[in-house]
């Protein structure tokens, strides 16, 4: 059967499945972005985004991808001669480093894909160097690894550096208490744990970050301007009204479930995925201690090819998983289980994976992955 | 009656009314931006955007507002020490100047709102100064004035300067033949004459512009990267898949009507609006010779207040018109008639305007505006 965009099981590491209520919210023929009606939308978004980020800070909403959000954070904070410390353990940590190098100076700590950073090394750099910004990707989507945010925050506070966290695939799925961890800028994207369409970047911005920003450097990505305008329920430039309406509905759904509940549910599903992989004699890419609760990355055993697994289950069963990105293309696959993903989808995905791996000649006890998930389902009630 | 976002006559100067087919195209629960299905979307978008801009040049599509597009053009082309000539005759021409000043040097020619630029003055600056970029807003949305693009293009070609045109409220509604007029970068927005939701900036980019761009300056707004990726049906960062699907459907609708037909229809409606205003003894803001075919700006006579006209017809009749922006707030109002706007909406709007102006004590022959539009309707068949 050919893949049907309207009817499938969709488990990418973002974009993710969108609730019909959210799609319905976009079914609006017209609404002016300077109208009182849209100001009300922005006001409700302010409350809901502060709830999402667990913060009293301002939260800017930019029409653009998560990368636009990362760009805005780094462009406004860094100038030539100012140093950032970044952690490169995957594609998005690498991107943070590229941004730091573009706008300022960068000390980049590099680790193999799937390995956590060395906290001692971070501490050492911050002791020796004058670091203005520590910027890293909390949940490394490309490798399924969650970096130790509370520990890095502690080191950062000790040395007085600004803390910029790419929480694009963590905020709303893994606990990211912005105020408690004193995160100066935390970035997320609409199409990940929030489960809205792609196209909006959300940034919580502390007073300290606002004060440290450079004037007259950016225009569209001028974070200070975005923050100031949103305080009046406005945006400096035309926002994507339809995406804002979708975001609003997705955040309402998140609040109905409760942030804490969603984080717990996401964790339980992740645990089941990891156990199911183990039952199939498959290895996770990251150290299990650091394995992400929103994305599970599973290595292909030698001789098993991506097209025989991912390609096969897309084509035959209409189930979409994520592959691995360059320079590790074809080495592992990823299951996104953030946002609205439930046990039922994971059950179907592992059933299909069992069929595909068995067909490809991989040895494991048939039915074991699905049985493992069933056990977790029963425990979760 | 309270304003209903789902049921009204919507005549802003963008965003504009969206066709149900376009809204339906967004009703898709999930589609990966690296999927073969989305690559096909990008390929069809490439053909349709080249049709829209009347060009063989690459057309980049950025997730962001029209201002993001203007920013991308100027940030990539201008460095300190390089000069741009800009035309400030309204809010958006002013914005182009702000961008030029931010990234390079700027010679800004300023004219009162509603007045066209002095072509002799442009010629003089280009003769005397080393200008890298001439950048201006083709259709000044804030004043309802269309700047003389073919004439400015001619001067520009004579002196070998790069030509950057903000065509945000002209492309798709007023003739902007990019290749014929040798426009190096032409920018438009999704929510204007194309009649899709806001959130995408479209930029046609010439080879000459690509060669003149600075390396290692921008990240998210790196136009060269966007152009190169789109040649393979890809985007460098996560695009707003849903907005791309909406744009695709809106461009299909535009092509079904035919670009030339849409431009002609838009012109006929604009002509009727201008004649109807005259019938009500109202004055246009711009010189009639330069009056825009996509936005009609009409001055309030002394003593007539914005709230008694625009506020009244929104509240009582569910018809939305645009006001005027700072520093000319309350001095005039604007009727957007781009995209899918037809005679029927203009008819309703002028009927309501007759009621409002009469109630506010303005003297004119009752029924004359609507009768004028009816004459134009008959002529248009």
The average pLDDT value of chain A, as a whole number, equals: 97
Number of strands of chain A: 13
What's the number of structural domains of chain A? 2
CATH top level of the largest domain in chain A is Alpha Beta
Low-pLDDT runs of 5+ residues of chain A are: none
Helix content of chain A: 40-55%
Question: Can you summarize this structure?
Answer:
The structure is a homodimer of 381-residue chains. Chain A has 13 helices and 13 strands.
What is the strand and helix layout of this fold?
2 copies of one chain form a homodimer.
Chain A: E1 9-11, H1 20-25, H2 36-53, E2 58-63, H3 66-77, E3 83-88, H4 91-103, E4 105-110, H5 119-128, E5 131-137, E6 139-140, E7 145-146, H6 149-159, E8 162-166, E9 185-189, E10 200-205, H7 207-212, H8 223-231, H9 241-257, H10 259-279, E11 295-299, H11 306-317, E12 319-321, E13 332-336, H12 343-359, H13 368-380
Parallel strand pairs in A: 1-12, 3-4, 3-5, 5-8, 8-9
Antiparallel strand pairs in A: 2-10, 6-7, 9-10, 11-13
């Amino acid at each position: 059967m050919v893949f049907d965009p309207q009817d499938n099981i969709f488990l990418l590491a973002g974009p993710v499945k969108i609730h019909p209520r959210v799609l319905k919210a976009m079914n609006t023929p017209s609404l002016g972005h300077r109208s009182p009606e849209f100001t009300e939308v922005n006001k409700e978004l302010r409350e809901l985004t502060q709830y999402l980020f667990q913060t009293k800070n301002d939260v800017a909403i930019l029409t653009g991808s998560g990368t636009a959000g990362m760009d805005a954070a780094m462009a406004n904070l860094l100038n030539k001669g100012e140093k950032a410390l970044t952690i490169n353990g995957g594609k998005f940590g690498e991107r943070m480093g590229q941004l730091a190098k573009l706008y300022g100076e960068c000390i980049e700590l590099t680790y193999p894909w799937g390995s956590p950073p060395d906290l001692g090394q971070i501490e050492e750099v911050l002791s020796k160097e004058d670091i203005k910004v520590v910027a890293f990707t909390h949940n490394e989507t490309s490798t399924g690894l969650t970096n130790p945010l509370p520990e890095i925050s502690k080191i950062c506070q000790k040395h007085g550096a600004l803390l910029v966290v790419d929480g694009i695939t963590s905020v709303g799925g893994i606990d990211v208490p912005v105020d408690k961890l004193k995160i100066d800028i935390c970035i997320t994207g609409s199409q990940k744990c929030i489960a809205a369409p792609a196209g909006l970047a959300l940034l919580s911005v502390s007073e300290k970050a606002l004060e440290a920003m450079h004037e007259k450097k950016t225009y569209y990505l001028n974070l200070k301007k975005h923050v100031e305008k949103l305080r009046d329920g406005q945006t400096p430039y035309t926002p994507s009204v339809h995406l804002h309406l979708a975001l609003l509905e997705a955040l309402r759904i998140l609040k109905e479930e409760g942030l804490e509940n969603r984080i717990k549910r996401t964790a339980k599903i992740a645990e089941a995925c990891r156990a199911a992989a183990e039952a199939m004699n498959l290895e996770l890419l990251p150290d299990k201690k650091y394995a992400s609760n929103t994305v599970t990355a599973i290595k292909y055993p030698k001789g098993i090819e991506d097209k025989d697994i991912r390609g096969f289950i897309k084509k035959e069963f209409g189930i979409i998983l994520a592959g691995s990105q360059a320079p590790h293309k074809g080495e592992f696959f990823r299951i996104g289980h953030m946002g609205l993903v439930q046990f039922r989808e994971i059950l179907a995905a592992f059933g299909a994976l069992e069929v595909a791996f068995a067909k490809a000649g991989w040895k494991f006890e048939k039915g074991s992955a699905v049985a493992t998930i069933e056990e977790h389902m029963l425990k979760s009630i």
